[in-house]
């Protein structure tokens, strides 16, 4: 494996030799918080640790190296991370050689990295989202020089060739780009992950081929805004063209992608999805609000009318395609009238799945400075109202699947009443359960839906 020169070969060889001389290799534990992009980053962190001869630990208590890969999107995520870091203090007392690292989006926020080392003096490494390739060097310096590592740096570089340790199961997460240029007023991503950088298509295709060879059955293409893929590349390529290239690869697999920004979803992309059966009939299209005034304050760069026009196109070109979205409740300045417009739009679209969040103020964003007139108690009441509405719609969308045939990819099984129950998702992203055998895990199975539960479907093998 060829590693970038910054990722010191000396460091890798040193830890490899150290593991070779020990009775047991150093054990590592990586905990991920937040989005799929973070989990994909953690697979690269694990890949580097495995390259150095380390072995994965079952839990933190058995570990010699612990790394928390953090999320900065919500305040509650930060507090959870701080609590979990604090709990490591006792482990450090018992094992002075324990190496503890904190990385990811949270540490890129202003003042957070310094604050972690001041608040938790037992932490050895704090490093940013773009510095995963430096991990062997950081560990080498901690072991040999007892250094405290504090390094965050946003740049335009993409470091290819890093080893990847894939998660167990049939799903493979592959980043196609990093960062974001949209600067939605509530979001920290452009500040913690940098501006948009697209990977060269040949690197993406090579990684997809490798995943298919490893018997991965679902390829999940990742980006903060996959619809703007290709920006800045010399080659004339966009996301629709890349998706077509992946769909043309040989193998028994299907394709999903996250996340699409409504302002950039093109007719060309919908045409590519429509003509390729390997691409799942499920689109996640974050709405955030149904009010034009709130959308403007969020800097989303589309109106409710444009969003609904796009939904109509999707329903016309992709019959049976399920839709999901994100909604923020209680954005600064949001009124009851604004919120009711959101409810009306949700009733009109009928999302199969909806991810709902109370607004979380993030330091450094434009929304942090906006006046907030709605009390928290009222926001929570609105949130409960939205949840109730979506539960009704979601139940309806689940009932509509009864009698339909689905191609399901079970990723695990459970024992119930002496029977084996397979659990996985179908093309439209519905969770499906059915009786089968353990050997059917990770294999596509055609199932007829016979029952609809609140959050899942029940079916029988055809």
Question: Nutshell version of this structure?
Answer:
With 462 residues, the protein is an alpha/beta fold.
Please tell me about this protein's structure.
Helix 9 links the parallel strand 10 (218-222) and strand 11. The protein has helices spanning 9-21, 36-51, 75-86, 89-94, 112-119, 135-145, 189-193, 201-213, 239-247, 267-275, 292-298, 304-317, 336-349, 376-399, and strands at 27-32, 55-56, 65-70, 99-104, 125-127, 149-151, 171-175, 177-178, 197-198, 218-222, 254-258, 282-284, 322-329, 353-358, 405-416, 419-426, 431-435, 445-452, 457-461. A six-stranded parallel beta sheet has the order 2-1-3-4-5-6, with helices on both faces. Helix 1 (9-21) crosses helix 6 (135-145) and helix 13 (336-349) packs parallel to helix 14. With 462 residues, it is α/β, with parallel strands linked by helices. The protein has three domains: 9-151, Methylthiotransferase, N-terminal domain (Rossmann fold), CATH 3.40.50; 171-398, Alpha-Beta Horseshoe (pyruvate-formate lyase- activating enzyme), CATH 3.80.30.20; 405-461, OB fold (Dihydrolipoamide Acetyltransferase, E2P).
The amount of helix comes to 25-40%
Strand content is 15-25%
Shape: globular
Strand count, sense and barrel status of the largest sheet are: 6 strands, parallel
Q: CATH topology of the largest domain, what is it called?
A: pyruvate-formate lyase- activating enzyme
């Amino acid at each position: 494996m060829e590693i970038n020169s910054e990722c010191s070969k000396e460091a890798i060889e040193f830890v490899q030799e150290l593991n070779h001389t020990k009775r047991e290799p150093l054990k590592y534990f990586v905990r991920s918080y937040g989005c799929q992009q973070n989990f994909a980053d953690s697979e690269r962190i694990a890949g580097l640790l495995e390259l150095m001869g380390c072995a994965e630990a079952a839990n933190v208590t058995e570990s010699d190296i612990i790394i928390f890969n953090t999320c900065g999107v919500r305040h509650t995520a930060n507090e959870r991370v701080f609590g979990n870091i604090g709990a490591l203090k006792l482990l450090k007392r018992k094992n002075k050689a324990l190496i503890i690292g904190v990385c990811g989006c949270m540490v890129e926020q202003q003042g957070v990295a310094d604050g972690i080392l001041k608040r938790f003096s037992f932490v050895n490494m704090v490093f940013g989202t773009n510095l995963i390739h430096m991990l062997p060097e950081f560990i080498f310096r901690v072991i040999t020089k007892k250094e405290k590592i504090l390094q965050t740096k946003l740049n335009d570089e993409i470091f290819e060739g890093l080893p990847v340790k894939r998660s167990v199961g049939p799903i493979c997460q592959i980043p196609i780009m990093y960062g974001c240029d949209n600067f939605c007023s509530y979001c920290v991503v452009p500040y913690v992950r940098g501006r948009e950088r697209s990977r060269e298509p040949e690197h993406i295709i090579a990684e997809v081929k490798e995943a298919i060879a490893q018997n991965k059955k679902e390829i999940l293409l990742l980006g903060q805004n996959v619809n703007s893929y290709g920006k800045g590349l010399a080659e004339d390529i966009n996301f629709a063209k890349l998706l077509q290239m992946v769909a043309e690869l040989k193998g028994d697999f299907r394709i999903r992608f996250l996340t699409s920004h409504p302002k950039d979803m093109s007719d060309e992309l919908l045409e590519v999805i429509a003509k390729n059966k390997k691409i799942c009939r499920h689109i996640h299209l974050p709405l955030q609000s149904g009010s034009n005034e709130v959308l403007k304050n969020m800097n989303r760069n589309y109106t409710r009318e444009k969003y609904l026009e796009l939904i109509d196109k999707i329903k016309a070109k992709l019959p049976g395609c399920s839709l999901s979205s994100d909604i923020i409740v209680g954005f600064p300045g949001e009124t009851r009238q604004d919120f009711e417009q959101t409810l009306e739009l949700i009733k009109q679209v009928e999302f199969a799945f909806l991810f709902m969040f109370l607004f979380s103020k993030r330091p450094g964003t434009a929304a942090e400075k906006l006046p907030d007139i709605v009390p928290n108690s009222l926001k929570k009441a609105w949130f409960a109202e939205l949840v109730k509405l979506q539960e009704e719609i979601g139940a309806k969308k689940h009932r509509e699947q009864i009698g339909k045939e689905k191609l399901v990819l079970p990723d695990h099984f459970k024992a119930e009443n002496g029977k084996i129950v397979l659990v996985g998702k179908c093309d439209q992203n519905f969770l499906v359960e059915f009786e089968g055998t353990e050997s059917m895990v990770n294999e596509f199975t055609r199932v007829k839906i016979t029952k609809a539960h609140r959050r899942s479907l029940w079916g029988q093998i055809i």
